[in-house]
């Protein structure tokens, strides 16, 4: 068993009965994207994010988003510090929790738009600008944001510009009967997460990302992807179609899925496997079903 498949197996022991969502989460990480998990409280969103950081040996920080959270609470702040011996003082920057390899933005839609926007530059440029100075973020850098359904009280919907920064959006959903029985009879999920060990280190992850980028896409697969994009823009009846960035995201996600399937080339099924998680939050719920129904796969 390869290291990446061992990592998926270890994650499946913590998040039981959700192998598809785990594989998509790992594909998102391999594709150098960011992940949005939308579900009800108590479904295992935070547990999944912590477990991912553990098996990939990445530094993990959690930010609890609330209505009074400030951008400085995310990015960091400069504090004037005085040397007691010399009497001289200077401002010193104290990095915020965004300076980690895996950042969990927990309940991101409970914060105001001003605080949500603090992550925009970090997610797209892998850097932050504070007080006129630009500071680079660690590599790899992976944001996992969780949000509660917008129908719940005290939520601020994410704008389209920020939703587009997330490569994938997933929902864990309720466990099936057997998985829930395993949860009830088993040990605490927190204990299982604490016992997880690193399977794929950060250096190996960077190599895997290079392998994802090297996955070959034939003209036939690219034609299919372009037909999906064109249908979303002109024929699907959506308020607006998929952007060029969405097309690149779909291609990267499909390449990561192909790598998980032990292939160095794309097939149409790779695009279809990741389509819902990549496009539904960009267009509208279940948009991928319409795309799959009306856009044919041509040889």
SSE layout:
Elements: H1 3-14, H2 19-30, E1 35-38, H3 45-55, E2 60-64, H4 71-75, E3 76-82, E4 89-95, E5 102-106, H5 113-116, H6 120-125, E6 127-130, E7 133-136, E8 142-147, H7 160-163, E9 168-170, H8 177-185, H9 189-195, H10 202-213, H11 219-235, H12 244-260, H13 268-279, H14 287-294
Strand content: 15-25%
Q: Give the fraction of residues assigned to helices.
A: 40-55%
Unreliable spans = none
CATH superfamily of the largest domain: P-loop containing nucleotide triphosphate hydrolases
| Gap between N and C termini | 33 Å
Structural notes for this entry:
It is a single chain. The protein contains 14 helices and 9 strands. With 299 residues, it is of the alpha/beta class. It folds into 2 domains: 3-213, P-loop containing nucleotide triphosphate hydrolases (Rossmann fold); 214-299, Magnesium chelatase subunit I, C-Terminal domain (Helicase, Ruva Protein, domain 3, Orthogonal Bundle), CATH 1.10.8. The protein has a 5-stranded parallel sheet. Helix 1 (3-14) packs antiparallel against helix 3 (45-55) and helix 11 (219-235) crosses helix 12. The protein is globular and about 75 Å long. It starts with a helix and ends in a 5-residue tail after the last helix.
């Amino acid at each position: 068993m390869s290291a990446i498949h061992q990592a998926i197996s270890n994650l499946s022991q913590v998040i039981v009965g959700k192998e598809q969502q785990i594989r998509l989460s790992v594909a998102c990480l391999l594709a150098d994207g960011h992940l949005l998990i939308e579900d009800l409280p108590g479904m295992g969103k935070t547990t999944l994010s912590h477990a991912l950081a553990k098996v990939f040996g990445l530094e993990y920080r959690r930010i609890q988003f609330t209505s009074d959270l400030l951008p400085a609470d995310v990015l960091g702040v400069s504090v004037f510090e005085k040397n007691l011996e010399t009497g001289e003082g200077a401002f010193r920057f104290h990095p915020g929790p965004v300076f980690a390899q895996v950042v969990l933005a927990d309940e991101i839609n409970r914060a105001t738009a001003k605080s949500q926007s603090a992550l925009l530059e970090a997610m797209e440029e892998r850097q932050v600008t504070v007080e006129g100075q630009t500071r680079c973020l660690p590599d790899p850098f992976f944001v996992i944001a969780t949000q509660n359904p917008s129908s719940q009280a005290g939520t601020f919907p994410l704008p389209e510009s920020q939703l587009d920064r997330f490569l994938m959006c997933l929902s864990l959903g309720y466990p099936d009967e057997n998985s829930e029985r395993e949860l009830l009879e088993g040990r605490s999920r927190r204990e299982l997460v604490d016992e997880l060990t690193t399977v794929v280190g950060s250096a190996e992850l960077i190599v895997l990302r290079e392998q994802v980028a090297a996955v070959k896409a034939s003209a036939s697969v690219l034609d299919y992807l372009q037909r999906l994009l064109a249908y979303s823009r002109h024929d699907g009846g959506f308020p607006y179609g998929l952007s060029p960035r969405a097309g690149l995201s779909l291609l990267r996600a499909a390449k990561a899925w192909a790598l998980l399937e032990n292939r160095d080339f794309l097939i149409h099924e790779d695009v279809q496997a990741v389509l819902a998680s990549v496009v539904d939050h960009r267009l509208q719920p279940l948009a991928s079903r319409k795309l799959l129904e009306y856009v044919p796969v041509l040889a």
